[in-house]
Amino acid sequence: MTPSSRAEAQQRADEMRLFRSELDRLEREGVLKLSEDQRRAVADHQRGLLAAYAQAFDIDRDAQAKQLSLGMRVASFLGALALAASAFFLFYQFWGRFYTEAQAGILITAALGTLVATFAIQARDPTGYFTKLAAMVAFACFVLNIVMLGQIFNITPSDKALLPWAALALLLAYACDLRLLLAAGILCLIAFVSARTGTWSGMYWLHFGERPENFFPAAVGLFFVPQLLDHRKFHGFPAIYRVFGLLTFFLPMLILANWGRFSYLDFERNIVEGFYQVLGFASTAGIIWLGARRHWPEVVNTGLVFFVIFLYTKFYDWWWEIMPKYLFFFVVGLTAVLLLAIFKRLRAGALATGAKPK
Amino acid sequence: MKWSRAHTVAAGIGLIALTNTVALLGVLYNRSGEASAVLRLTQREVPMSWVSYDNRENSGISLRFDRRPYDREPDWFDKAKLEALGFDTSVSAFDTRSEERYDKQLPREVLLVLEQDGPAYRRELELAKENSEREEAKAASRPGDERLRENARRAREVLEKERNESSRLFVVDAGLDPAALRAKYPDAARYAIVRGQVRPARVYMSQKLYGVVEGLSVSEINVPFAMRGVVGTAPQDGDVERRNQLPFDATVAFGRRLEPWIVSAAKK
Hints:
By secondary structure, chain A is mainly alpha-helical. Chain A is built from 12 helices and no strands. The model of chain A has no long low-confidence stretch (mean pLDDT about 90).
């Protein structure tokens, strides 16, 4: 099967490297012995595949190349943010010295030009690092375009601007296989859906962050996006949707579990906080179970982190004032040991059932 | 049909073009036809926005609406007005849970009526004048009293500031129906209807529930390049003295979408 993305090709190359390593070990231990012809055939086949993948996707052929790639990913991420900021401040520095028509023309041209440049770079950049830089600049130019049009023409701020930003970020993310742009698009969508949810109660949209419950519909929607859309060609995208969905769900819940006055619920603060604490424990436990069952490690890990945060904030509320500090931290440590024991049992159970990832 | 890179580029260009078209058509619509109001303002009502240290590289210049009253709750913004604007005032504002009840009601966007140099300003001027006369009379009745003389001097300063420097732009009403507000305030050269945010507030001393204007949806107006020479350079953050150095007249129009723009500006 021909890989459709760099991630798939890289995975196949990694599996080949593991295969060669295991084959060497099996031969040394005398378990398996390939004939010289078989060995050559396998080596030739793999070499050919690796060469083809390297040409098409610029994959890392060995561990050293993979380490360097990690550095390049970090550099391209930081570079993308820095170049986006640079484009923003470049315009800010000079825009006041142009006539209105020129200001609008520069903004629109910059947004269109960087978009076209992104796809031109993508056609010549199998690694994707430079495409990521260009795509982030294109997205920043479009955001700047709309923000500055609003400022130049004194347009009333509107949450509707978040929709085209999300659309362009998602277009770039899917067209160029860029997780950074996917995250940017998801953040715009979260802000838009939450603002719309907030306005249902009559509030001015810019205040949507002051009622954490506004984020729940966006959270639920995001979590189920990978179930509704086929993401087989987009390695890592489903995990990003799910993690953002969970963060958008659990962070507001954590706030409400500690500061009930921010809730829509018209009850006493301690009742609201108690409700969200119970809901927090129940939903994190449920999410850990779901993640383990569906073999979504990112879901298990996110659920676990929030379960522990919910637990430790409750410990703090109950015992920080009344316990000696050594005892408090001892209890926290014991809880960690207990959690480790529980997860060890769960892991053993999963291994025993021989579950395989989907 | 297979989705190609060319399709993606076309989709991206279409998205950017469509978004800009919608935004610019909105601007054209706002500025088409007869303006909903045209106010003649000065540096008193629309001083230049201060530039913070972090924002010092911004080469753009804007004027900000200096709306009043900012030192007390407006008389017209009472419980009935809050109800009319959609706030729930059915529960007592001063029982044990009222703080949560009222704090939970976040600002709403409504229509505000801005009055330029009208009865609200004249009333403020009259109050400052009465206060000055009262303090002068007190000081005159006891010539040796240093404290009374100082009070009289301060009251004179307040009156002078009110007369020559303070903004004459007052928020005088709020509503949800622009036609009803325009019918109530028909003078488009004195009253502008704009969007802004309001919220309920409470005064514990007088056990009174009232409304507060949080801000205008468009609180600043961009100064086009051609008019930069009229208003001068932006003052640094907190530079109170410098902001009034260049007196100017600015004609500000409010369009069909109630969004403002500077029609003309001239040095005084």
